[in-house]
Amino acid sequence: MILTVTxxxxxxxxxxxxxxxxxxxxxxxxxxxxPGGKGLNVARVLAALGHEVTVTGxxxxxxxxxxxxxxxxxxxxxxxxxxxxxxxxxxxAVVDARTGDTTQLNEPGPVITPxxxxxxxxxxxxxxxxxxxxxxxxxxxxxxPVGAYAVLVRTARAAGVPVLLDTSGEALRxxxxxxxxxxxxxxxxxxxxxxxxxxxxxxQDARRRGAxxxxxxxxxxxxxxxxxEGRWRATPPARVxxxxxxxxxxASAGLLSGLVERLPWPDRLARAVAxxxxxxxxxxxxxxxxxxxxxxxxxxTVTGEATAA
Length: 309
Known about the structure:
Layout: E1 2-6, E2 10-17, E3 30-36, H1 38-48, E4 53-59, H2 61-72, E5 77-79, E6 82-83, E7 89-96, E8 102-106, H3 114-128, E9 133-137, H4 148-158, E10 163-166, H5 169-177, E11 182-183, H6 187-194, H7 199-208, E12 213-217, E13 223-227, E14 230-235, H8 247-260, H9 265-280, H10 290-297, E15 301-306
Parallel strand pairs: 1-4, 1-9, 2-7, 4-5, 4-6, 9-10, 10-11, 11-12
Antiparallel strand pairs: 2-3, 7-8, 12-13, 13-14, 14-15
Helix pairs in contact: 1-8, 4-5, 6-7, 8-9, 9-10
Protein name: 1-phosphofructokinase family hexose kinase
Region (Disordered): 227-249
Keywords: ATP-binding, Kinase, Nucleotide-binding, Transferase
C-alpha cells in the first residue's frame, strides 16, 4: 500500500470557456468536478497504474462530503481522511479553449485546530505501519505548523517508510532538513529553496541540505534528477499543450510507483515524464490520457550517468 497525505484537500472544479477575457461575462461550455489537492491527484494516478493507495489528510463541511463521495467510486483508493470542523476548499481552473491556457484560483483551506493536528499525527503513525511508501504533498492549511512536513518526514523515517515530499516555501525548507528520500520541486520552488536558477547546481545544493534524491520539474522540458545513484535528465519527444494542472502530481506518482517497484532511476524518470505529459493532454485537471501515456513512455529520452559503485 502507498500512503498519500493531503493536508489541504480540495474539490477541483474545471470550467472550459471559448475564450477567457478580463472584465467580461463568460458562457461556460463544460464543467467538471473531482477530488483534488496534490496528494489526491497522486493517489488517483497511482491507482490507475494498479497500486493500492490510502489517502489521508483533512476534510470538512459540505465540500468535504462531496470530495469523500467522489472518492468512494475510485477503484484502488481507500479513504482515511480525518474530519475537521472547517470547510474543505475549492480550486477553480478556467481553461481557455482558444489558447489552451489555464487560469487557476485556489482557496486557502480550513483552519485546523491544535487538537485536530494532534489527532492527525496519531492516525498517520498508525497508517505508516502498512505503507510501502508515503507521499507528503501540497500546501499547509491555516493552523497547521509550518514545520509540519518535517515532523511527518521524521515519523516516516522512524517507521522505515520511504517518503516523497512535494511542497514549497518554508514548508519545503524545513521538510528538506528532515532528510526525505525524494523531493520533487518545480524550477521556481527549487530556486527559492537554494538561491540558484541553474538546475544542476540547485539539485546538488538541495541534496546537501538534506534530501537524499532531488527530482526537479522543468515544465514542458521534462525533469532533472540528482540521486545517490547518479544524475539524469529526462525529456519528452515534443512539447505538449493543454491543461498543466496536476502534471507535477502525475510525475510524483510515476516516481513513487517506480520506487516501490524497484525500477532503476532512468525508468522511473521516463514514467514520470510520460505521465506528466499525458496529464497535460487530459481535458480534466489531474487525470492522464492512458493512450497518450503508453505511446509516450518509450519515446522519453533519458540522458546522464550512474555513479560508480
